[in-house]
Structure formats: C-alpha cells, structure tokens
UniProtKB/TrEMBL annotation:
<protein>
    <recommendedName>
        <fullName>Exported repetitive protein PirG</fullName>
    </recommendedName>
</protein>
C-alpha cells in the first residue's frame, strides 16, 4: 500500500467519512461540475 511516500496523500486515500463525502457523487459537488 506504500504507493505514495507522502503521509498527506495517504490520508485522503483511506476510507474516512470526512474525506469520503467530497469523493462521493454528492449533489453539491455535482452542480458546479457540469457548470
């Protein structure tokens, strides 16, 4: 799993609820996307 030598990049890769939210196809993120 040591693909990224940076601890900062490893964190967002984990299944965290806070980081998982923005990664999911939420309506809030979907609106500005097509725009």
């Amino acid at each position: 799993m040591p693909t990224f030598p940076l601890p900062e990049l490893k964190k967002p890769m984990l299944p965290l609820p806070e980081l998982k939210k923005p990664m999911l196809p939420l309506p809030e993120f979907s609106a500005p996307n097509p725009t």
